């Protein structure tokens, strides 16, 4: 059966986590508390709305939905200012090599991201043309670890979930891929992504042979 590959964006294709971190940190500081890189780990793969709720819990603060909406807009505007300056130098190592190999083998490529800014980021770094399907935070109602984002990507590729392979850097994303009955491949630390079927530190550790086996029928 024909295979399809679904990529998460942040932490797999580009490292935008550092920009999310700076924008959330600015908001936390403005609200009177610190926000560390370690705490930012909890935000990976998590929707903007949920991130704000976690941040407020960290600061022991509560707020009306109206106030939360204002803070989310502020955070996003700061984040947009960072991604505005992005270019292809921010693509993570060997990502173009893997995308090219998939294209050469006529394998459908999808994006499955929690971000509402996914498309502008792909365009900024010059990778948008590789993607046949984009499902992002604008399309889904249920955030990872719910499998909705990946199931929608499979449907748009006209593939059954069991023929889809997901590259993910977040625990919630691996859980979502497993729940979708897809092959999950973790990009990051073994200890963190232990639920993934395969785990690699980054794409430089993935051989062409491995990729060819993965996409073979
Ligand atoms: C990314 C990040 C999360 C971020 C989320 C929403 O998910 O990992 O930290 O909160 O997108 O982003 P935005 O505020 O741009 O809509 P993913 O799924 O690409 O890793
Ligand atoms: Mg991610």
Instruction: Please tally the β strands and state the result.
Output: 6
Rg over alpha carbons:
17 Å
How many individual helices?
9
Counting structural domains, the number is 2
What is the CATH fold-level name of the largest domain?
Answer: Rossmann fold
| Strand proportion | 5-15%
Shape: globular
Name the CATH homologous superfamily of the largest domain.
HAD superfamily/HAD-like
- The CATH class designation of the largest domain is Alpha Beta
Distance between the termini: 5 Å
Summed over residues and divided by their number, the pLDDT gives a mean of 96
GO molecular function, one term: beta-phosphoglucomutase activity
Catalytic activity: beta-D-glucose 1-phosphate = beta-D-glucose 6-phosphate
EC number: 5.4.2.6
Protein name: Beta-phosphoglucomutase
Q: What descriptive keywords fit this protein?
A:
DNA polymerase, domain 1, binds magnesium ion, 2 domains, alpha/beta, Rossmann fold, 11% strand, 6-stranded parallel β-sheet, binds 1,6-di-O-phosphono-alpha-D-glucopyranose, 42% helix, 217 residues
């Amino acid at each position: 059966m024909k295979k399809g590959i679904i990529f998460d964006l942040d932490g797999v294709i580009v490292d935008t986590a550092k920009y999310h971190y700076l924008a959330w940190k600015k908001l936390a500081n403005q609200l009177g508390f610190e926000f560390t890189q370690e705490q930012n780990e909890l935000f990976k793969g998590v929707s903007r709305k949920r991130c704000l709720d976690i941040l407020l819990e960290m600061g022991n603060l509560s707020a009306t939905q109206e106030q939360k909406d204002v803070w989310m807009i502020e955070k996003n505007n700061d984040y947009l200012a960072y991604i505005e300056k992005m270019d292809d130098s921010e693509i993570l190592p060997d990502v173009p090599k893997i995308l090219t190999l998939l294209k050469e083998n006529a394998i459908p490529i999808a994006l499955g991201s929690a971000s509402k800014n996914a498309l502008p980021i792909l365009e900024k770094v010059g990778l948008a043309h590789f993607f046949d399907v984009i499902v992002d935070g604008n399309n889904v109602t249920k955030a990872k670890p719910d499998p909705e984002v990946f199931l929608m990507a499979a449907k748009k590729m006209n593939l059954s979930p069991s023929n889809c392979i997901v590259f993910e850097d977040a625990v919630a994303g691996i859980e979502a891929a497993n729940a979708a009955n897809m092959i999950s491949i973790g990009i990051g630390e073994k200890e963190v992504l232990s639920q993934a079927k395969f785990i690699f530190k980054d794409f430089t550790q993935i051989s062409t042979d491995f990729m060819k086996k993965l996409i073979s029928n």
